[in-house]
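Dig into these lines:

——
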Amino acid sequence: MEDPAALLRKTIRRNKKLEVLLKKHKQNNHLQHALILLSEQASTVAELTLLYPAIHDILVQHLPCKSFYVVLQNQFSQELELSYFIDEKDGIAVPLHHAHHFSDGITGHVFRTGKTLYLTQSQMTEQARDGVFRALGSPAEHWVGVPIYRDKTIIGVMVSQSYQKDQHYTEQQIELLEVMSLYLATAIERVKKRELLESEVKIRTRALMQSNDALNKEIEQRKRALERQQILFKISELATQFNDIDDVYQQVHDIIRSITFADNLFIALYDKNTGWLSFPYCVDEVSHYKPRPFAKGYSELVISTEQSQLIDIERAKTLIDSSIVVRTRHYHQQRLATSWMGAPLKTAHGVIGLIACQAYDHKYEFNHDDIELISFVSNQIASVLQTHLANQALKASHLQLEHRVAEKTKALQQSNLHLQMQIDERKKIEQQLYHDAHHDALTSLPNRSLFLTQLEKTLQKFQRHPEHNFAVLFIDLDKFKLINDELGHQAGDQFLIWVAQAFLECIREHDLLARLAGDEFVILLDHLSDRQQAEDVAKRIIKVMQQPFCMKGVCMQSGASIGITYSNKHYQNTDEIIRDADAAMYYAKNAGRGRYEFYHPLLTAATGNHKTAEYHHLSALPSHFRGTDIIDLSLSNNDISMLEAFGEHPVLGSTSFDILKKFAAEKAEHVDIELLLLTQALELARDTKQDVLFACSTILLDQQVFAQLCQRLAQHTHSLCLIFDETEIRYASNQQQDNLCELTHLGYIIGINDFAKDRCDLTLLSQINFTYVLLSSTFSKRVLQQTSYEAQLKGILAVTQLQNMQVIAKGPAILNFRSLLESHGLTRFFGKQHHIEKAAIDVRQTPPIPTEPETLTF
């Protein structure tokens, strides 16, 4: 039998183990509960100002942290800034004071060391005395600071402190703070993204509201136009449906009452022969008007000036004081109108009278809208009243009456016909406006906007139904500039019209032909079963373009270079489709023109030369550099130049590496060529005093390549600016965009190329600190040709000026329009390109880096 004492000791040891396990279980349970609450808050809290109190509430449940604050590093100033603060003793003003900056205190010490730190009051006093950090704020009995990391980078510190000696922090509580800090950065990022999303939603909502207001205004204007049309129809009916003149007056009163206040209205007629005013119709709550000789009243003022009059109390006093209006002695005994308006009844024979409305005791105040409406009615109704008055005067002569009635009936029919023609014309104008917004003015073909919209729909349909294949043909006319120079721009326009009609005859009815700009056309072929159908269309176009174009007795031969891209499951957006079709067209043009080529990454299928494939290995291509001066109209000397690498391709000839790099045999070779060309550019730019721009691919921003890029940049003292294409930046990965921003943080100059080529995305300029912004030649031309793009240019200049960026315009023959672009706020332009003989290199062998290179002038 086991000894009772040993059994007791065994039981005690077992209980202690159970207590330890229970304690760990409680600790894990608290930790899991805190993390769940943090995740819920990050998913539900809409603002960062609400996230920190929620985190604080979670921590209060598990450790003494009534005094709690969070400090984050500002990514721009690199200083520690307070994000959340609550303290039992110190107010919010204490940590915001410059003398109590966090960098000098224990918080800055934790941020610099990147390690969790727990100190008592005595330990803090001792280390502050030793100069480890400064003692700031009220001394706490217990202080613990935990660094906050994001992707192994410290971004801030989370601190909890206690002013009670008995409220210390256990290892489990400190571990809870450390675990919470690991998830805090992710939670902050999620809330920031949610805030950004809500901000974008508000901006879009505001834009929709503005658009809705504009639409409501347009609807209101159309309502007014419709009301006036209805009034015209009613007035037209007066001449034919009412024989009694008194009924006509009543109907006129009803029409005016439908558009304004008309409780008191009279119609006066003026006889020039007798000089008397008569009042055949009068409805008034105060006065009853009787015939009177022509004098100086309100009615006489309307007739003599032949203009509508709006009179209130102040103007009435002014008219009386200036003796333009003279009151009779009996007039002062009457109740005077507080607001009066009158409109003349004008006919071809002059003014025959007026229509007037008035209000008493400020019951209604007439305004300019009222006077405009009554003037409109009076102009239309005058002829109707004249007709009825003439009929009344000519009843004694039957023959003369029939003649006048026939004339007036004809006039009314013409008026009705004219009204109907106006309605039909308005419908045609609306249809024409919609057509003009989506079609080219010269050829009447769909424009870029309509084509891209239809291409987007076709791509979405293909993504849902892969069996519905499509193709895009990018067409560039050969020798179009020669036709313009030889025959004139008018002949060039006629040639484009002829080409558009010829292309339409080469495609099916449901295919879409559009004109992008200048001599560039695109065709969207839908419902294709194989590539041969696209080839057939290309062959028909090439054949029809072989026909000479004749004008003014001169015939010239043109042609068409066509690039074709076929539907592919890898296409995600329309920009990729247009880009590939354009690349294939460029290849066709440089391969001899008057031909078509399908897009292929290697572009070797159609050459038939077995040696061509090896030339797509860029390491086998000899290359050289060309420099382009960038002219600044505000400076006497050019302080910027553009450096571009060219390769000698066996088919394309001397071609920019920006194009050749698309056809690299493999990614590794692409990277090697990029780094080699960059090294050569750094050598060329090392001793120049100018800022040298050099185009690079975003492949250098890949994580596995970025370190090599930074290493090469760090080895040279240079003024080289790395230029990245806007399209590549737009579709770059998050890692690539982060590395792009990291270049600016490291002090290197970057720029964006071909900006606003297809769209004007100002968010790129606000998110990344570019030094140079190179506008695409397409956008520069559109600014000069279409006033609608001026607003986009103003937006670009406003953002770049705010961000201290320099804008450069480029494009063929852009200097011819320099004065126009300068009037829009642009002063920097691409100048003449020149070959750099001493910069020639051969990428087939990596040349040694010279110790003292010659200084080259760009």
